[in-house]
Amino acid sequence: MKINTISIFLNEVAIAWEDKTSGYLPLKKLREACPCAFCSGEKDVFGNVYKGKQKLSEDSFKLLRYEKIGLYGLRFFWADNHHEGIYTYDLLAFLTNEKK
Asked: By the 8 A CB rule, do 92 and 29 touch?
């Protein structure tokens, strides 16, 4: 599924999908779900997960902008200079439909 529009608000983003559905996603939830290796970790061949030690600040939850990545995802740019995660459309659809 593809995104038609995305709007950034103070504490959330609104996503309108091509199938005419839409949803809101709190910025805190979006940032905490960052899929980059530093935030979410990555496994070695033995299954050990390695990830960075996060020190999230108030700026960590301020969304400055986003950019489309190919035909499958978005990269978000946060006020604390973090922008490594690529959120697939599938992940964003899951997050917007997940129970709060």
From this structure: no
Unique residue bearing structure tokens 């997050």: 95
Compute the distance between CA of residue 7 and CA of residue 88 in angstroms, rounded to an integer: 17
Q: Is the pTM of this model over 0.70?
A: yes
Strands (E), 1-100: 3-8, 12-17, 22-26, 42-43, 49-50, 63-69, 73-78, 86-88
Half-sphere exposure in the Cβ direction for 73 (13 Å, CA): 13
Distance CA 38, CA 46 (A): 18
- Per-residue confidence band for 14, with pLDDT thresholds at 50, 70 and 90: very high
CA distances from 32 to 24, 25, 40, 71, 85 (A): 15, 12, 9, 23, 11
Name the DSSP class of 94. H
